[in-house]
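Example record for the data management plan.
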Amino acid sequence: MLVKFFAERGEVVRERSKETMCLLDFYKLDDPAAEKGEYAECAPQVQGISPGWVDQYYKVLPGQPLDVTGLPAGTYYLISTANPERRLLERAPDNNAAWVSFQLTREPGSPPRLALLGTPRAIQRGCAAPRASPTGTAPTGSNHPRSRASSV
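Corresponding structural encoding:
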């Protein structure tokens, strides 16, 4: 899993891999095109995440925390992409990204606070996840979260 934080202006401010222990359909995204979930348990031979579904882990498990150290208060977009290196066999590798926006606030003497600004959304089918351009800014367009922020 590849996770990227984009600042409101579009630049990538953090990027890292995230650990996965078991692939299963944990909950369905707000995506009318999402199929019925097929993977309800961590079977030793067959695991997966159905299109339009999310595999979620408890935040205190190893490899799950996302570091916001040094990031200023503001609005951010988290984009996660499953199987970015195409190591796993898939029916449709073009539906592996989802995004959510959140507000990071900081108050003196308190830990940073994150507030979701909506529910996670799938990146449109047939569109690749936004990637940083050579200038370091994310492209805009219909599949970029900034272009749909009002619908979150």
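Summary line stored alongside the record: Residues 125-152 have pLDDT under 50 and may be disordered.
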